[in-house]
């Protein structure tokens, strides 16, 4: 069983959310990973997908408008695909915990091993729920002085996957940086800090061209 997370999370600025802090992740990489897993046909897939982000086979559906043979490939996967959708950071973390725990138990019952591929772009900073205003922030109340926000670091939950939620899983993380000189060091630190089995590292301007994979065995 493979869990794939995909798309970006939002960090709400109100409990009754009107405004939020978001990122530019389209979810394309996660969607293509799911497509390939289904094409291989040797595993069930649980996808945690950001609402409105790229969906598996979306690209194939567009191509099928001019190519019937591509259309016939859709739906042939012999294994199951379960999609769990999220939008906010809170929804993502709650869904990730529940999914990892359930998938870990099911994989163990089958005598196999779960795989968790963390391709989602998770918010680094947020306003904690206890600090969020209940209603929409009124622009008229801040028009003169401006609006100041205090964002706090999001608790790092990557380590919880191997420590508690799904200890036997093969876990793959992703690391995106804008400074290529920081990439290798940060990827290796993620491997050690969160007990990941592999980290897929890429730099912002070349992320569509190539990636570097760092493995826990040093390769």
Automatic annotation (TrEMBL):
Q: Name one GO biological process term.
A: coenzyme A biosynthetic process
**Pfam hit, one:** DFP
Q: Which GO terms describe its molecular function?
A: catalytic activity
Entries under InterPro entries matching the protein: CoaB-like_sf (IPR035929), DNA/pantothenate-metab_flavo_C (IPR007085)
Domain called DNA/pantothenate metabolism flavoprotein C-terminal: residue spans: 113-206
The UniProt similarity line reads: Belongs to the PPC synthetase family.
- Protein name listed in UniProt: DNA/pantothenate metabolism flavoprotein C-terminal domain-containing protein
Q: Which organism's genome codes for this protein? A: Ostreococcus lucimarinus (strain CCE9901)
